[in-house]
Prior knowledge:
Layout: E1 4-6, E2 22-25, H1 32-37, E3 46-49, E4 65-68, E5 75-78, E6 82-86, H2 91-100, E7 103-104, H3 116-121, E8 140-146, E9 152-156, H4 160-166, E10 175-182, E11 184-185, E12 189-196, H5 198-210, E13 214-220, E14 225-233, H6 243-259, H7 265-282, E15 286-288, E16 311-314, H8 318-336, E17 344-349, E18 365-368, H9 378-391, E19 395-396, H10 406-413, H11 415-427, H12 436-442
Parallel strand pairs: 2-4, 3-4
Antiparallel strand pairs: 1-2, 5-6, 6-10, 7-11, 8-9, 8-10, 12-14, 12-15, 13-14, 13-17, 16-18, 16-19, 17-18
Helix pairs in contact: 5-8, 6-7
Bound molecules: flavin-adenine dinucleotide.
Amino acid sequence: MASKVTRSPGADSSGIYRRPRLVLKLKRFEDLPSVLEKTKSYPTPVRMVGADYSQTRCVGGDGGTTVDTAALDKIQEFGETFVRAQAGVRVGVLVHALAERGLELPLTPEMGQISLGAVAVTTLPQASFGAGTAQMSSCVTELKLITPQGKQMIVTEQQRDLMRVLRSSYGLLGVVHEVVLRVRPLTPVKIDYQVLGLKDFSARFAAIMQAPGALRLHISPFTDKITVERRTLDESASLSRSGIWKIRNSVMRNVLPAFGSSVGSVLAAGVQRALGATLDRATRGVALYAHEWMRELPNEAWKARHTYSLWAFPQSDFPRILGEYFAFCKAYYKQHKYRSNLVSGASRLHQDRGSLFSLSYCGPMITLEPSSTGEKGWDDFLIDFNDFASAAGGTPSFNQTRALQPEHVAKSFGERVKLFKALRQRTDPLNRLRNSYFAYLLG
Ligand SMILES: Cc1cc2nc3c(=O)[nH]c(=O)nc-3n(C[C@H](O)[C@H](O)[C@H](O)COP(=O)(O)OP(=O)(O)OC[C@H]3O[C@@H](n4cnc5c(N)ncnc54)[C@H](O)[C@@H]3O)c2cc1C
């Protein structure tokens, strides 16, 4: 076999426990059927890893085989409305290659280290422009995968129900090796900011939601500030690639890697300053292409993995929930003397039923993403925040919500979890692809 096997993987210093027995650097997708079939050579569970940037143990190891897809890195075909690429291609690489051809994805995340395999099968919500496309997986129109039994499968959008399940399958129903994504012509995005206190934000909430565009919020519970970032597609906008966005990207690219995971208040201050500078300039209006807001994080994923957790809440309840979140953060600080040292992010998500575990499956939602440099107290804070979020009717993500518990999952996804579990048991009765993280959360 051309693919390379390593026998003694290093421990993961991020605190995300894995311990696979083998790490296989896959060179050709044609090797996958035999990897899945040979249970003695490639111990169970067989788990894929793409960019390795998830916040949780969704990759897992558990004494099994971790298959690294990084070498499946070919972009195979550019069409006017689609692009075909292998699962190991990073979104950042793809988005820049598309931009050179005057094209873009319908959604562009802010970081580039996401593999297309993960785009196809995990929950990656983005500030959305309209109904139907609020998670990255909804941009996927076709995928090729190898089933747990080693069989090749091609699934297209026409098979809607199957596609919906696969787009939330986390490698539990098969290994994706190729995807087709929808693309559209590159369009300038106008960015405007409005800074409000909670009271004003709540009073203007209906109008803020109704106005067109994608919404990203930057939330500071302790200074009572909500910065509303509106991104509007505007073909007529003249581009003003101000140096300010470069400053922001430079901080993310250079400061973050330099400080690694042990960053303290220096990084926090740097990020806040960059955001502040961006805001000052942006009040005068900025227009840019979506790929210009993308940033590259350190290649060693563990250095940045601790930095946020994510839940989504029904849009209609959001002002009230935000008020409760402010109160929760302040009460937590009073009791435990801990508060996270970065602004919390949030994205408005239009309804998107394209994947079973879509955060906005039941209707429009807004995420809440407490963020931190990972200092002492952060992990405990997230455990309590999870209980707060679940009680407030939140929905979590299996790859971006840390310290998730089965009761949170059951409460949020109800019948959808039961459906997925039944399907998984039928398609993978020997649990070839299931690790302990998903056994714990999904059964
Ligand atoms: C600091 C930081 C900032 C972030 N910012 C953003 C952001 O702006 N926007 C955003 O959307 N996300 C963001 N994320 C989240 C992150 O992008 C995703 O959770 C993660 O990158 C998913 O891609 P990955 O390739 O790293 O997946 P991995 O962590 O490698 O894998 C994720 C899951 O998919 C499965 N999988 C991977 N490849 C395959 C395959 N080929 N076939 C089947 N299953 C597969 C894995 O087994 C695992 O269960 C950020 C994360 C960090 C740490």
